[in-house]
Amino acid sequence: MIQTLLEIFFVSTKLGFTSFGGPIAHLGYFHEEYVRKRKWMDEKSYADLVALCQFLPGPASSQVGIGIGVMRSGALGGIVAFIGFTFPSVVALILFALLLHQFDLTHASWIHGLKIVAAAVVAQAIISMAQKLTPDLNRKAIALFALVGTLLWQTAFTQVGVIVISAIIGFFLYKHQSENVDSKVQFPISRRFAIFCLALFFGLLIFLPILRQMTSSSWIAMFDSFYRSGSLVFGGGHVVLPLLEREFVPTGWVSKETFLAGYGAAQAVPGPLFTFAAYLGAVMHGRLGGIVATAAIFLPAILLIFGTLPFWNSLRHNPKIKGALMGVNAAVVGILISAFYNPIWTSSILSPVDFALAAILFSMLVFWKLPPWIIVLAGAFGGTLMVFF
């Protein structure tokens, strides 16, 4: 048990130090590490878990990591996986908040190199997942629909709507078909515990604003703001940033300049973008504030993934649901391609030199099969050299 937890912590921490590029890129890193390299899950189980987490509010990539930890060692494994993946960026952003007036890290040239790393990683993930999840013309069409829909209408709820429509299409197209590979993944969480987690999620969502009005505690107000933001965000980490700005800048808790400086730093560190909360909490209440803010914004994601995983196998293996999941999995490919173009490609490939570096990094990852941490270092070094071109 302890050995398994240590293994989970080691692997997730390595990903926490090397997973640059935002939530879509994280799914690429996870796929490479957990599915292709360690084979903790098969391709379809990973795709289904990604599809489930896309349905839930909160940081989808972090929820996928928690789900994989749960599969390996129960709820404690999920917590360990979350801590390992999250704490490197939490520590980095708290330190940045404390040293904000001494160093300016937001315009360093190596940050652009890390964005190009994300482009290479996501391209590799798209190719790998598309081969498995869109083998026929119908599923290719669903992926195209998801690509066009999420690319042309970029709102917080478009992604959820596309997934729901794709599930309906998949249900009618594939309800009488079965897939050749039928896997069953065990999640050692009881349904009673899952129901408790779901009840706690909704209870806190209702009770915290009431408690905030009854008291004048700035800590409770801060916890409520972060918890509510983490509970109501669909679409990943990039969507939570403007929500947090509306929560904390107009109230005067954080100045606009300080907020934007932290926003830039959040793009430069690995791990989930939700750890931007650690920066804001540290600005308001020091190191302890950073830790409390991190716990508050991620707590809804943890409660939701614990509350839904025990019901996952029965749903995904139900003949009436399997066709819908086939449609959703195809839609995930389209969503990945959409995110690959915007924001990853549009913010990273700005010149022929950028494309050349991306081609080199992609070749190192796909053809020479070098580990992701080497790709990250090569991208940062390449970004630094770009100032001479």
Automatic annotation (TrEMBL):
Domain of life (superkingdom): Bacteria
An MF annotation (GO) of this entry: chromate transmembrane transporter activity
Entry membrane topology: Multi-pass membrane protein
Keywords assigned: Cell membrane, Membrane, Transmembrane, Transmembrane helix
The UniProt record lists the keyword Signal: no
InterPro entries tied to this protein: Chr_Tranpt_l_chain, Chromate_transpt
Residues that span the membrane, as ranges: 75-98, 110-130, 142-173, 193-214, 264-284, 291-312, 324-342, 373-388
GO CC, one annotated term: plasma membrane
Keyword Transmembrane: yes
Annotated localization: Cell membrane
Family in the record: Belongs to the chromate ion transporter (CHR) (TC 2.A.51) family.
Record NCBIfam families: 2A51
Protein name as annotated: Chromate transporter
Record lineage: Bacteria, Bacillati, Bacillota, Bacilli, Bacillales
